[in-house]
Structures are given as structure tokens and as C-alpha cells.
Hints:
By secondary structure, the chain is mainly β. It has one helix spanning 2-19; strands spanning 31-34, 39-41, 51-58, 61-67, 70-73, 81-83, 90-92, 101-109, 115-124, 128-133, 139-140, 146-153, 158-163, 166-167, 174-176, 182-185, 194-202, 205-213, 215-225, 229-231, 236-245, 249-254, 257-258, 265-268, 277-285, 290-301. It is built from one helix and 26 strands.
Amino acid sequence: MVSHRLYWTLSILSCFGQYFGQEDLQFPDPANGAIGGSVVLAPDNPPSISILTTQWFFTTTYIISVTSGVAQVNSAYEGRVSVNSSTFALELRNLTLNDSGIYRLTLTPTAGGPLTGETKLQVFEKISNVRLTGPEESLIEGNSSANISSEGTGSITSVEWMKDNSPLSPSNRIIFSPDHRSVSISPVQRSDSGEYLCSYRNPVSSETAKLRLNISYGPEDVSIEGLNVVDLGVLVSLSCSANSEPSASFSWRFNGTDTGVTTDTFTIEKTDLTHTGDYECTASNSVTKRSASQKHALLVQDYLG
């Protein structure tokens, strides 16, 4: 009596399993492939029992059937498919976008009912020809805006931006387009200088393009290094520096008169009393069209006096 009830219980559970679509063969996560490439679809749990017939289907389209080692292939798949007799895996070659979809495996044992399972394949076009275009004009801190646009071909599933190898994040100045394929920076700051990278990705390929932005600023923080009091007959050097991008050019005035010196260093080979006075260094930036100056007082003393 117990055996009879157990038989009916197992039969009912089996019916419910079929009704709710339970499958005997389990597959890993959906597979990905590239156009022109190949992919292997293999169940995680191939049965160890004797299998008479192995059949693969694409949705409802028959692909290949192997019975007792003899394969029959749909003419549409001729030369593109094969089945591993041990793992029942399907190898599909020369992939096209039309190969994306649901694949179903049916195994017919020599005894008992069929075993089934299904998996999904997504075919992608490899990404190529990724490039970045940016502003051609000079960018000046606080005045300019920069727009960087990306282009590329292939099945693009994600776009990632980085600056100097760190993720580029949106802010009140940095705004991405809805498709994330372009970014606008306004107004630019000196911290925006650096190398920008844009990567197009999909599960089977990726490609990155680079673009460098240089933000011009300054000059500012002009300073002069040198002695303030010197003796007669000595060599004196005054060195001028400024914070500027691109590097500043320099000019020197002495007591309001242009000296003709256009280097960062003003040199007096041998001092005399006429060298006492105010030395003014002016730093200029050819891109920002800005300039800034600093003065330095020098006293040449006559130690004999």
C-alpha cells in the first residue's frame, strides 16, 4: 500500500514539474559571442546514462541531431556546427547577429523519457574605430568651455570615461549627454588639464580612445629671488618666476625704464652705485593675454664710504 502511494506521489510531482517548465539539464549564465567567432553551449550537468539521440534546436528550428554517432545537420547550419559526444555541447561557428536567441537541447536516453534544457546566446559586433574629438581652440581657465565627443562602431553596451586613470564623475561643471557619449566642461579650470579616456564596451570586446586637454591660466604669483643689499663690484642675479600655463615670458624694467632683458634672470656682472633702484619683472602669457608684475628693491652700498 505504501509503495503504491509513493508511486502516485512521484508521478504527481513529475507532472507538476513538467507543468511548471522544470528542466533536467542546467546551463551556466547566458553565453556571449562575437560576429565571425565561435561559441560552445554546454550543459553544467551532462548525464552519465546512455544517450541514444542528441538534438539541438534554435527556438523551434532544428539544428543538428546525433543518433548512435551519426549526425544529421540542418542545411542552414552545414559546416557551422558540431556536437561533443561526451558533453553534448554544441559548437556554433561563424556567428552572425541572427544567431542570437534561445537554444534548446534534448537528450533521449536508451531507457526512460527525454531530458531537456535551454540556454540563451547573444551575439555582438566587435567594437572598433573608437575616437575622441575635442576643442581645437585654446582653453582659458574661467572663460572657456570644452566639449569632448566620442565615436565608435559595434554593439555598444556601455560607455566609460576616465581622467588621468580615475573615473570621471559628473558635477555642476561636468555634464554628460544622455547616451554618455559626450561630455561638456564649463567653465574649465586648471584642474581639468590631463588625459581623458573613453572606453566603449560589450561582453566580447572593448576599445579605448584618448584625448589630452591643456587649460591655460596665469600668470600669477610672480616673485623675484635675489639679494636686496649688495656691495660694490660684485655679481648680482635676480631670478623671476610665475605660475603660468603655458610658461610665461619675461621682461625687465629698471626704475621704470625698459632694460631689453627678456629672460627670467636679470644679471649685473659688476655692481656700481648706479645699479641701486627698483627692478620690475613682468610675466606675460601669450595665450591668456594676461600679465602680472613684481618689483624688487636693490641697494648697492659703498663699504668704503
